[in-house]
# Entry
Amino acid sequence: MRTSPGIANLIRGGVGSYKGAKAGLVCHQASVTEMLAHSADVLAAHEDLDVVALFGPQHGIRGEKQDNMIESESFTDGRLAVPVYSLYGDVRKPTAEMLAGLDVLFFDLQDVGVRIYTFIWTMTLAMEACRDAGVRFVVLDRPNPVNGTRLEGRILESGFESFVGLHPVPLRHGLTTGEMARVANGEFGIGCELEVIPCKNWRREHWFDQTGLPWVSPSPNLPTMDSCIAYPGMVLLEGTNLSEGRGTTRPFEVFGAPFLDPFAVCRGLDACDLSGVKFRPCYFEPTFQKHAHVVCGGAQLHVTDRNAFRPVEAAVTILRVVRELAPTDFQWRPPPYEYEEHKMPIDILWGSETLRNGIDDGRGAQEIIEPGLSDIAEFQQRVAPYLLY
# Structure
């Protein structure tokens, strides 16, 4: 049975207490119904709602910003004749002026289930702003595309907060946006007037391609389910001088650098015998971002069993193997990164210094990952009361 997202369930169930409300909407290109109608159009067409403002996240409300860390400008939507406020730039939290006159702010972004993905932090900042402005906050929930059963990676430690992690959640957190909002409101002390309109017919073990919903890329460099499956681990390569495949047709599925021998890389990775994935030696030439227009040697990940595959373990293993093969050429990326001017990018991505220190000390992937497993178990217990599915 096909999953229906929160936007569809809001409309089918009637807008209820929001009748006559002046509404804002945080949305992007993937904010669509089962029939690909955009949420902004659906809400604007509803006779009982008055949509007076739109808000866009990283990559822009239309998803047009191809690279990461490219800011968007605010503008006026020509079709709906409403202001579109950018929440990725100097302003990342809605201001009182942006929220003035609103009764409710709807939030409808397709997330990818990873702490580093900025959409959930756009959400929590908007929740704080709505609390302070006395505006109701409503999450129109959507499925976690990489399922809600598998959690991986380090929980963010105090002192490593940034726009790729504002609260202590695991790297791969296993929550929907609606569940994350409930956790943030109750456990992280936001305390806004919150409602979540759940999905229907979604189960925690479902991957996105089991929902029956159309796939719309949540951001330009996650074009397919394959890229989303790899992303929870391969995004860590953003904290290094390795290309994570941005500027290619397979972002987060290919990786490499001009100084790497792809065959040596794959021999090293094959010796690690990782579950659910095979590595193919390859060359590629990024069209933008790291090593643009320079031939890189590396590998492509071919996931053979996504239920057995552990992307975080794979990425940590890749870092260890590359560090051994190219101890001089491999480097950690220096700041700034995602509005953080001082902390090392790899540290705010991982959530602590333990990954960087472990790789530099020559530790194995399991030795780096295992100390965080008990924290993940505690996190699962802590969030259990807030789960919707």
Summary: The mean pLDDT is 97. The CA atoms of residues 28 and 61 lie 4 Å apart.
